[in-house]
Amino acid sequence: MALQGNLVDLPLIDLVQVLTLQNKTGVLTLSRNFSQAQVAFTKSRIYSAFVHHTNQNGLSVYKQGEEALYDLLDWPDGQFTFELTNALPAVENVQVKWDHMILEYCRLSDEKDQKHHQNEIILTRPKLVPDPPYQAEIKLDLEQWRLLFQINGELTLKEIADNTRQDYRVIVSLAENLEKLGLITLERMAQPKTKSANSRTYYQPSQEINNASANSLHSPNMARAFGKEPANRPYSKPPVLTAPSSDRTIPGHFAQPASISHFQPVSPQNNDAVAAPKPKVQRGVLSGIMAKIRGL
Amino acid sequence: MEIVKIVVTGAYAAGKTQFIQSISEIEVVNTEAEVQKEDELEIKSQTTVALDFGKITINPELALYLFGTPGQERFDFMWEILASGCLGYLVMVDSTRPEQLREAANVIRYFTEMLDVPFIVVANKQDDPTGLPVDYIRYRLNLPDYVPVLPCVAKDRESVKNVLLTLLDLIYQTTEEVA
Q1: ipTM over the 0.85 cut-off
Q2: CA distances for B73 relative to A158, B34, B48, B76, B121, angstroms
Q3: pTM over the 0.90 mark
């Protein structure tokens, strides 16, 4: 018997939790407006995911794997059916754990909210009220007076924060207080065009760090440190910046130069990272230290 | 006297000083200064600017020295000095601050370029319910399987001992017998 319902009643996060905890093997089919999706489960985990959107012009967008799951997490509603079956799709395309994906999804949502909030600040322009309401006495502190002097009807809160070298959060708080006192109004400017939902880019661990650094987390030195053979794959060492003076040269880092133009990136001669000589120690010494620490 | 040196590094306010304080037999020698930058001040008021130093005497001829590095990258000139001659190092990560993981990745990159000695990533503050799971930290740092990521509570001595013993064991396993 199939399990059927709507994501409004049972959100995807809960649904996946139930299916994985119950160790079900089968296929979850979802549909919403012009979108169809299929998520396969096996052995307490997600095996594959596919989403297919068709817009009103008949254009298709096809997503799979983690990208498809992030897309599904955005669905506020949609019909679903879960069928128990061992006939899974041929392609396994989900490797990441579901709980990791949920954490990533939360992080992305938080960052999106934060960016939205910052956008609002960038786009908010304070203006003096020409005829403020009569109040017997208005007490302003120094910071509020400073902000008041900056308001010329042209500058946005972000620009004022930059000009006065103050934290924009402080400026926003001051501006909100002045608005409450009826001295200024906060005018929101038109939003700039944002990317469409389909052009959203999803998190990949390698995006977290730039390409060079992601690569260098698997550097030959790291492998050697653990007695492993360095992976037989191209390794792009961060560029070594050399200075004409006696400044130190460390891969990817450089001392405060008089001018950055003095530094010329030099391609590494070979792909091997150069490390300081490994210090020697007797195993007996290490055993002694471990015994002492155990006894602490 | 023979000295064995371990470095404790990591991002800003990850718990490096606390880690050394929990295990050192001497009052930790530290170089703390008032935090000036506003964003850093939100996290803590004092920070290490040069080094933390802790010590465990094994016997009259042998001692384990623990050096803690400053967290901010603007003090990275100290990292190189402190890392010289160390047998292994610990990279502390605050599990409750996911935004710190990028910084931690930078620290790992810096140290692995400089040294080829074993290290452990230490997921600190695992007693906090908001702490990220250890395997998620590994996933975010994109670490190879052979790099251990250990849960830790830097203010708990037993937890600190467990981390140190794991690192020493790793060093033991990757050390060739010296006559």
Answers
A1: no
A2: 27, 17, 12, 5, 18
A3: no
